[in-house]
Amino acid sequence: MQIAYAHFTVNHMVHYQTRLDTTFAALSDVTRRGVLEQLGDSDASVTDLAQRFRMTLTGMKKHVSVLEQAGLVTTEKVGRVRTCKLGPRRLEEEAAWIERHHQLWSARFDALDELVEHLKRREKTDVPRKRR
């Protein structure tokens, strides 16, 4: 029973890490982030997106494909027009991951600030007083 649970946990963790990697890779490109912002305002065809971002249709299709694989965009083809819209992913796992690391680093910087202040106070009290 424990082996099955451990296997599930490892598989879940690998799947979670793969999903994070795919999402962050998709978000690492300025054009793809721009596409997401654009689709936040309204759905758009791949052709419209290519024109707005001044790129080839092939280039935009590649960007849309990366976003689609990450679940950030969905596409639907009607006739010759492929329309893009925001996907079902809401980035909750990614936001939670960022928040955990933000808290970790904040705690480390707070501890560093405390240490620096402690050393400053100690330095002031350790300096021998000059005689007049």
From TrEMBL:
SUPFAM superfamilies: Winged helix' DNA-binding domain. SMART domains: HTH_ARSR. Residues 12-106 form the HTH arsR-type domain. It comes from the Bacteria. Pfam families: HTH_20 (PF12840). InterPro entries: ArsR-like_HTH, HTH_ArsR_DNA-bd_dom, WH-like_DNA-bd_sf, WH_DNA-bd_sf. This is ArsR/SmtB family transcription factor. It comes from Rhodanobacter lycopersici.
